[in-house]
Amino acid sequence: MYLKKVDGPRAVTLPDGTVMTLADLPPPETCRWVVSRKLAVVRGVAYGLISEGDALKQYGLSEEEFHEWVQSVMRDGTEGLKATFHQKRKE
């Protein structure tokens, strides 16, 4: 069995004890960003599975958009990543 050489770790352990691997990240061609995919990218960057620069490039995200996701998670948890959450908050 051969493993493809990758920069950085192949897996990281999250604070809750679960292991996150590169396979847990969304595919690069992702167009529809649901909460679980956004959270996977945010966690991947936060715990060192993928660098922020690589994530921005791989997923075609702007720094502003990614940082908005991070701030939403920090402020409101996973609920903050829902588009409807921000719509309700503005009302």
From TrEMBL:
InterPro entries according to UniProt: DUF1153, Trp_repressor/repl_initiator, WH-like_DNA-bd_sf
Top-level division of the source organism's lineage: Bacteria
A single MF term (Gene Ontology): sequence-specific DNA binding
SUPFAM superfamilies: TrpR-like
Protein name, entry field: DUF1153 domain-containing protein
Source organism of this protein record: Roseovarius bejariae
